[in-house]
Amino acid sequence: MKKLFLFQIFAAMALAVIVGFITGSTAEISGIPIVRIYDLIGRLFLNSLKLLMVPLVVSSIITGTAKVGTDQNFGILGAKTFVYFFITGLFAIFIGFACAAFLSPWISESLIQTLTYKSGANVEMLIATKGVFDSFEEILLRLIPSNIFQVASEGQMLGLILFSLIFGIFSAKIDQKFSIVIINFWNGLFHIMMKMTHLVMKAMPIGVFGLMAKMVATTGLETMRPIAFFFIIVVLGLIVFSFIVLPLLLKLIAGVNPLTHFRAVAPALLTAFTTSSSVATLPITLECMEKRANIPNKFCSFVLPLGATVNLTGSALYATVAVLFVAKCYGINLEIGNLFTVGLLCLFTSLGMVAGIPSATFVAITIILQSIGLPSESVILILPVERFLDMFRTTVNVFCSTCVTLLVAKK
Fold first, then answer.
1. Buried b or exposed e, range 98-108, using 16+ CB within 10 angstroms
2. Which of 334, 300, 326 is nearest to 386 (CA)?
3. Which sign, positive or negative, has the C-alpha torsion 328, 330, 335, 336?
4. Who's near 193: CB < 8 A, 6+ residues apart?
5. φ, ψ of residue 25 in degrees (nearest 5)
6. pLDDT tens-digit profile of 163-220?
7. Distance between CA 341 and CA 174 in Å, rounded?
8. 38 or 381, which is more confident?
9. Which segment of 5-14, 252-261, 388-397, 400-409 scores lowest on mean pLDDT?
């Protein structure tokens, strides 16, 4: 079934390139420009995703943090775990920033002008020069908004995510008879949103066709070269994070031979690569860590399930590069304040990327692009390589979780 879905997506992309190139932006049917039909198909798919964003992310974060809050092991163990999650997440995002710096030479001025003209992106808002305090003030006001329903309706996710984290933690701290009702409600909502998201994802080949056909019809094949280089840069960034940063942490902090650890978790990494799901890989990851790496169950049973949902460092790295790549394609050089906002969003939304759904990062990137003023349809720029990169970043997500488990257990 998974292979069939992948085939459908790649077939849709191939067909979109051919059809979009043939029709161009001027062909019509009964006086209706064909490119408008492509646009309608793509917008319906994106609207379906955006419709699910807020309840999916909020319910995911609340149920995840509520579970942590009720866990009896949460304390020093939980604090150490989240410190390592935060450290590895920061490293991933910094590498993402570094990778994005190499993308500019591969993006032509004509592509920038075409995309900016066609989309009507709010470039002025993004390139406005702000002082350090202005940027810091804006981020704080986004983190702590005055009306949570307003920011939810506007898709401003920073404040919504922080509110969800705090709400989830305190849902587990109130009287049990109330806590059970609240947590069950959000857990039920989360499962409903998962089902709805799976339904929308089934329509992904159709949405991909519409979005890509429109892009090719309006910009030609000019986007192919920067997209290919984007793929290479992201893979290189994931390699640096997995084979340099994480091994150094293992060696310097835990005194563990990285090669030995890599061999121990190899079956889990292979499963993650083929399934593109950290959650689906979890049983094998637990077995590898307990039986092959000899890590006690009390650490594995706490850190690994938590890491499968909130320690998506590979996804955070990918999202950082993707957002900055799209911004550069629109001719936007983000200021320090905007970069800080992107970094925070990538770090925070990694908590709500819903690791059980392949390509869930696609939803998170759409959230971040909207938050910085870019059109949601701009995600089409990364779609041709999305499924390939999903396999790579999921593998990195799982490997990072195993490394954090080992670090927590050894120190």
1. ebbeebeebbe
2. 326
3. negative
4. 52, 55, 56, 59, 60
5. -100, 5
6. 887 888 888 888 888 989 999 999 899 889 878 877 887 887 888 888 888 877 876 6
7. 32
8. 38
9. 5-14
361/366 Cα distance (integer angstroms): 9
**CA distances (Å), origin 41, targets 14, 44, 235, 275:** 16, 5, 30, 28
d(CA 111, CA 187): 44
Q: Collect all residues with Cβ–Cβ distance below 8 Å to 56 and sequence separation of at least 6.
A: 190, 193, 194, 197, 352, 354, 363
Residue 355 C-beta-side C-alpha neighbours within 13 Å: 31
What beta strand segments (E) does 7-74 contain? Answer: 28-29, 32-33
Which of 262, 238, 383 shows the shortest CA–CA distance to 312? 238
- Domains, the chain: 2-19+32-410 (1.10.3860)
CA 78 to chain centre: 24
Q: How far apart are CA 190 and CA 170, in angstroms?
A: 18
Q: What is the pTM of this model?
A: 0.72
Of the candidates 115, 319, 354, 61, the one whose C-alpha atom is nearest the C-alpha of residue 223 is 115
Give the containing element (helix H, strand E) for 73: none
Q: Evaluate whether 58 touches 160 at the Cβ level (below 8 Å).
A: yes
Q: How far apart are CA 234 and CA 231, in angstroms?
A: 5
pLDDT tens digit sequence for 375-407: 767 777 787 777 778 888 889 999 999 999 999
